[in-house]
Amino acid sequence: xxxxxxxxxxxxxxxxxxxxxxxxxxxxxxxxxxxxxxxxxxxxxxxxxxxxxxxxxxxxxxxxxxxxxxxxxxxxxxxxxxxxxxxxxxxxxxxxxxxxxxxxxxxxxxxxxxxxxxxxxxxxxxxxxxxxxxxxxxxxxxxxxxxxxxxxxxxxxxxxxxxxxxxxxxxxxxxxxxxxxxxxxxxxxxxxxxxxxxxxxxxxxxxxxxxxxxxxxxxxxxxxxxxxxxxxxxxxxxxxxxxxxxxxxxxxxxxxxxxxxxxxxxxxxxxxxxxxxxxxxxxxxxxxxxxxxxxxxxxxxxxxxxxxxxxxxxxxxxxxxxxxxxxxxxxxxxxxxxxxxxxxxxxxxxxxxxxxxxxxxxxxxxxxxxxxxxxxxxxxxxxxxxxxxxxxxxxxxxxxxxxxxxxxxxxxxxxxxxxxxxxxxxxxxxxxxxxxxxxx
Amino acid sequence: xxxxxxxxxxxxxxxxxxxxxxxxxxxxxxxxxxxxxxxxxxxxxxxxxxxxxxxxxxxxxxxxxxxxxxxxxxxxxxxxxxxxxxxxxxxxxxxxxxxxxxxxxxxxxxxxxxxxxxxxxxxxxxxxxxxxxxxxxxxxxxxxxxxxxxxxxxxxxxxxxxxxxxxxxxxxxxxxxxxxxxxxxxxxxxxxxxxxxxxxxxxxxxxxxxxxxxxxxxxxxxxxxxxxxxxxxxxxxxxxxxxxxxxxxxxxxxxxxxxxxxxxxxxxxxxxxxxxxxxxxxxxxxxxxxxxxxxxxxxxxxxxxxxxxxxxxxxxxxxxxxxxxxxxxxxxxxxxxxxxxxxxxxxxxxxxxxxxxxxxxxxxxxxxxxxxxxxxxxxxxxxxxxxxxxxxxxxxxxxxxxxxxxxxxxxxxxxxxxxxxxxxxxxxxxxxxxxxxxxx
Amino acid sequence: xxxxxxxxxxxxxxxxxxxxxxxxxxxxxxxxxxxxxxxxxxxxxxxxxxxxxxxxxxxxxxxxxxxxxxxxxxxxxxxxxxxxxxxxxxxxxxxxxxxxxxxxxxxxxxxxxxxxxxxxxxxxxxxxxxxxxxxxxxxxxxxxxxxxxxxxxxxxxxxxxxxxxxxxxxxxxxxxxxxxxxxxxxxxxxxxxxxxxxxxxxxxxxxxxxxxxxxxxxxxxxxxxxxxxxxxxxxxxxxxxxxxxxxxxxxxxxxxxxxxxxxxxxxxxxxxxxxxxxxxxxxxxxxxxxxxxxxxxxxxxxxxxxxxxxxxxxxxxxxxxxxxxxxxxxxxxxxxxxxxxxxxxxxxxxxxxxxxxxxxxxxxxxxxxxxxxxxxxxxxxxxxxxxxxxxxxxxxxxxxxxxxxxxxxxxxxxxxxxxxxxxxxxxxxxxxxxxxxxxxxxxxxxxxxxxxxxxxxxxxxxxxxxxxxxxxxxxxxxxxxxxxxxxxxxxxxxxxxxxxxxxx
Amino acid sequence: xxxxxxxxxxxxxxxxxxxxxxxxxxxxxxxxxxxxxxxxxxxxxxxxxxxxxxxxxxxxxxxxxxxxxxxxxxxxxxxxxxxxxxxxxxxxxxxxxxxxxxxxxxxxxxxxxxxxxxxxxxxxxxxxxxxxxxxxxxxxxxxxxxxxxxxxxxxxxxxxxxxxxxxxxxxxxxxxxxxxxxxxxxxxxxxxxxxxxxxxxxxxxxxxxxxxxxxxxxxxxxxxxxxxxxxxxxxxxxxxxxxxxxxxxxxxxxxxxxxxxxxxxxxxxxxxxxxxxxxxxxxxxxxxxxxxxxxxxxxxxxxxxxxxxxxxxxxxxxxxxxxxxxxxxxxxxxxxxxxxxxxxxxxxxxxxxxxxxxxxxxxxxxxxxxxxxxxxxxxxxxxxxxxxxxxxxxxxxxxxxxxxxxxxxxxxxxxxxxxxxxxxxxxxxxxxxxxxxxxxxxxxxxxxxxxxxxxxxxxxxxxxxxxxxxxxxxxxxxxxxxxxxxxxxxxxxxxxxxxxxxxx
Lengths: 440, 440, 504, 504
Ligand SMILES: Cc1ncc(COP(=O)(O)O)c(C=O)c1O
Ligand SMILES: Cc1ncc(COP(=O)(O)O)c(C=O)c1O
Fold this sequence. Notes:
The complex is a heterotetramer, with 2 copies of chain A and 2 copies of chain C.
Chain A: H1 9-18, H2 49-62, E1 70-71, H3 84-90, H4 93-96, H5 108-125, E2 129-130, H6 137-152, E3 156-160, H7 165-178, E4 181-185, E5 187-188, E6 191-192, E7 202-207, H8 217-227, E8 230-235, E9 253-257, E10 273-277, E11 290-294, E12 300-304, H9 311-314, H10 327-364, E13 370-371, E14 380-384, H11 389-398, E15 401-402, E16 405-406, E17 415-418, H12 425-439
Parallel strand pairs in A: 1-15, 3-4, 3-7, 7-8, 8-9
Antiparallel strand pairs in A: 2-10, 5-6, 9-10, 11-12, 13-14, 14-17, 16-17
Helix pairs in contact in A: 3-10, 5-10, 6-7, 10-12
Chain C: H1 24-27, H2 47-50, H3 68-79, H4 102-109, H5 111-114, H6 126-143, E1 147-149, H7 155-172, E2 179-183, H8 189-196, E3 200-204, H9 214-220, E4 225-230, H10 243-252, E5 256-261, H11 273-276, E6 280-283, H12 285-288, E7 303-305, E8 317-320, E9 326-329, H13 345-381, E10 397-400, H14 402-408, H15 412-421, E11 428-429, E12 438-441, H16 449-464, H17 483-488
Parallel strand pairs in C: 2-3, 2-4, 4-5, 5-6
Antiparallel strand pairs in C: 1-7, 6-7, 8-9, 10-12, 11-12
The complex binds pyridoxal-5'-phosphate (2 copies).
């Protein structure tokens, strides 16, 4: 349809005439004839708006989502409520249709939102500074390790097996380029058992870890100290409503996934990479950073700062290659954290923990269902099931539940179950009843 | 919950102290003890946001709407497409959460939108001036008759039976107060047969009329001239994309329903009363009027004008009692008409007319289905059915269709069918097939 | 260029300064378009085939021809020239410009509500009918009445509906009365509605305390009085303490009491019109129950009545039938429809969601905070502005700039325009009519004490430094608007503009 | 008052002037709240019962305590301090800030898309998988490639993914190469990605015509070269006419060609990277395919490759299984995941809806109008600005303020700030690095000829009247911002502010 090109034929003719050209084909004179696409793209012509809506609606209708499918899956992406205020504010077109704030004089809206975001993310981490977002938790982890390696000058990394396996896989992928040596550190009954000695650049632990267990961050800090490494903590920001901050345990870098704050599960994207570090590492901070300053008349103003770290200035020596990040998701996160406030964040964490305990108790009452590991958990837990976890997930779908995430062999199988503040007692009771049925 | 009151208990105490009061109950000291509501409202406590959403969702899910129910009903409210642009622009919070533009210096957004709306509504009517909206087509009709009666000094009204019966009923209700004498004028084979003589204040005709038929507006104008009356035309603005404007036939006042432009069917509200008249009647115009002017520095500015007609100034002598109108729906209408543009409005009317012809043809091919009246129709038509129309509607609902509007005995029964640009050939074919089945 | 003004230019967005935004007609360029329709497969008959020649429009109707991009830009820029509750406080007296929770937007946006055709058989709209019935029941509980119609689309429509109910009732009592009494402080819609209801307005003065002068009222009461229309609290924000006495007096002569519910916000859960003796009550859901005002509407103005008036209500109304399902029912002596369908249904759904969210406890809190804010502000401003009725009031109060006008030339309108500069919307000015240079201030319950403090300081600054206020506002998208010129050189449409037009 | 700044005050909305907006921390008042959670009926264990003591947070984490009303006011006012495409033209070179149709917002908002958990079994997400597979197929058709991954969440992530693909391929060829060649006009992400990909950057200069100096390139080619990264059209907006020769030369030494798709908008339906000889292509869906930029993201940077590289793509990818249903599949020699799930899925859905709406014909029109607008504007501005490469180009062009700087002291940054005053966003400045005082202008196809005219006139006015431009912009929410101070006195969070804080 070319529906979004405003030019009328008469206007195109007029503009071409101004250029001394006689057809739109002439516009591409510098494209060698041999490279021109004869016959145009092999693609159907454009559809009208309602036709596109119908087609997108058809595709959407094929996926099973709430309320047909009640979600007990987590593993990094969680089914939290997104209130109407957060949704409607985030999607103000001024935020949605702006570019990266290169011209601060007309970008104070995005800049101040990011400044507020950074402040809240730093508080969640218990550290002094946070950046303006990264792609997802996994990319934040990659950048955290890169920072630690650069700061320590050592490229070996102790990587807890309690870190989200998908994130570890991303880290591994990118380590092919950076040359980091990743040393997996195994879990013992759900928590990481750190090597007694060795010299490494980074010690990476997740809190609570992938199996939902509360790692001993004090232990991780001591392991890092022994190894001369920076401590990189992958932290669940929702749990932070109840847990001591990683910074209070001595983390140097804290990364995490911000999706739980204001963004729907979205089939896993867009997500939001949270990144915070100590002030002493700020020159190695990846990505954008907003700082407060003043304008010519002394009014408070915000601007992206310490830009000399960034790729457009530093080029091959940049601290990271990130350019476009996840600003709008960071805006949603800042709005959602403000909507929650001090009391709401605590209440949110509490409700998740309560639902988790209630669900865990219900499942463990089923014959043949047992805890996968013994360590205490908070908002997610793993169970061993009498039939393979993947089968449980499959059968539970017919009952209207996404039962959880089936764990890989690395963990000896098992099912990872997450319970958010959205899950009612009635839903959990039905879930447990269905569970009992399908594992029989 | 009282969730939207920001005051903390400490703040309330402080404010009360400033007033020398000791409790919130003291705030109501001027309310005589005997009148105080003991024990509070007999109403359950407030619900959380997700709980309200769940309850509203439950109520919404009980109604049958597209795609479960494909709509062939009209009768004043039509199933037109509302494009994403119209929706997202209309619901900009600056428009949604503003009051009537009493302070023009901070209301240029709403005022200019209304100015553009008035211009487009006047063009649709083929008249010089339009107001800034009335409640619905029915209330616009009431105001149109009031204007005609006041302008002519005669309170008898010739009211075509081709005017929407629901609107006629509203007119009748309000005539109990104004004392107008409404004289129904019957249809003959679908079009109004005007009395040869008489002296009346208003002649009211609908174009196309309730049965979808094209009235002879020239005839109506002549009837009005003979009777010394103003000609009030109820006009379908969508049809105006193909039909000559009522103004071109000599209408003095044109009223109509603006819902088809940018507002969903909404169970019949909010709707939008369109109102236009000749410039010579402007001092009797009901409701708000926006005019162009300048500010102190000579910049173009808009403001509500000729306010001396209005109730807040004129009080018991006002041209109307309207205060709050349907501004946001008028904004949606202005946006939608701009989205349609010259070509789109014509195309819209054309598509409705094509679908209507195709559907009519399909239905008339069914045994026992016959035209109710003979006059030509455009976007809506009435058929006689072998089983009562109400039964057809009931049975068709089980087939997934809202078959139309069952006509009352006044019209000798029959089914009124409307087809909009949204209806595909496949939908119409299925509709006709189901129709054939249910009338058997 | 072939035609049209530039569309992709934010010149008129205040963010970029105070330049004008062209009209959409100026952005138009012949042949440009934004429309897009579903592919239907329906045969493509021509206009000539579909329309008889004598009806066929000779040329297309001229509408703006713009791209979606330019339309979006235009309307977005216009929105940036508009103040709103979501931008800041809006202490517009009588209008109750509270913050409207976003959850209500979600409710109104549900496809199962917005997508319903109103003529669908009851079996297909049970959810809507339950919603309307429960809303009516809750409004009755709030007002202390017996039954309600949700049809009136705004307050004024509710008034007229109420007066027609009054009329029908008196008719059935066998005698058509001719007069309706309203106080001199009443809103303009009251007398206008009285006229349209076929009655004559009789005005009763207010006494020195700002309430109905009961003695004067008694003088006006006779058996030609159909009823009285009151707001309580009245438009001065004061509770009519003698309401029981007034009710008794009016009832004694066979009249009815009509309650204008524009100020209902003040008494939610505290007292009820029904308990005060009112027979007919309209509510402005767009004031009290978080239907956003939309720049001037749509609102909703349901009318609730006492038992004896219930048979006169407009129909149809949803009731539970024998089989437990909802069905439509029209009362025996119904005055008839007052709306083409069921009123502003989506606005009703918004209000319903708001009432659910607040519940009985929350509504009471609304009234408390609204009254607290207003009294705090009145008390605070006593030193800066005249307070013609300086005593505890309800959710709003009326100050006066009369002294400031005399001493410093600062009129009510100047205070209003200065307040715009200070970042707040202006109060209602010159209403009610009985107060000279009236400033009618209604903070509402959703403004925090901090905002109240800032509002107080701004109003104090204005009173303390009236210099140059007649040049205000200076920081708004346009400066003070020439309203007289608008009426003198009337330009009600773009086509009526005097200047020559180059394109459309 | 107990604490906090006023929340309901629009002082900082530009509509009300240029005052500051307090931070949300300043609006906070202890004990105030907006949160609201579902009633669940789950037992209410205490924190102490749920969390081991050594893990339990000693005190609640301090976040802003605001009402929903104040939060809405705050964020709405901040939005009013922000320029955006929906407000006006945004000729930011290299960024392709076109208008993004609103229908794409609808697509991304569908509950059936937004509500899906990514770990759900394939049987429950067939719609998503079909969407992703068809999008990948269409992107391959557009670029002339064989297979694609949609995982990379932005262009830079796509680059690094591409370099890792290159690396894996060379590894399997038995020899790890060390160098990647990039032109001196390249975007900064290119060299940064090269480093992260474990390669060394070798820069090849541009020739006098603004294209890769082929002779210089040949000098740099040896069997240690893993490949070359190019954009075509390049960052000067010029088509690399020698691309076939370049491809042959690079391939001859066993290197691969990487296509940075930031400029793909220019060649949609005209020519394809695959046909030019590229082996790896990333696309910025947020530039070319109407994913709005969100103030800096999220975007989407899919990578498409030729057949020989397909086995290395990140997985899982959706493919049709034996039973005709979609299933996940990871290529044999996959480099591994580059995103924790399937990339920015909702952004991908937006782009997909945009591609459906345009179709093959529409995409070609996009390129035509983008190139037409850019060339028209370049031609028009030749008299006002230096055009270092003054010949027909593609969708953007780079002008220079070098002469104006010399003659009138008007720097590129001053032109940018003046243009903000004129109601337009500024072009990209000081990039590419090879042009002095560069002004990189990309009008995009969605701006009308009328807007182009207005933009041209504004830029002409600026060049003609450079006086006082260093004081620009004057009509924006803040004046020129002190960037140096921000770096010198770093305040990256509200907690780092030097001033004493009264409340939080
Ligand atoms: C006291 C009073 N009565 C009646 C009305 C009229 O209500 P509406 O504008 O909804 O018609 C208003 C509205 O401002 C009012 O304030
Ligand atoms: C030429 C070029 N390459 C690469 C990029 C990086 O893309 P992204 O910002 O999506 O990471 C950009 C973005 O501005 C660009 O313009």
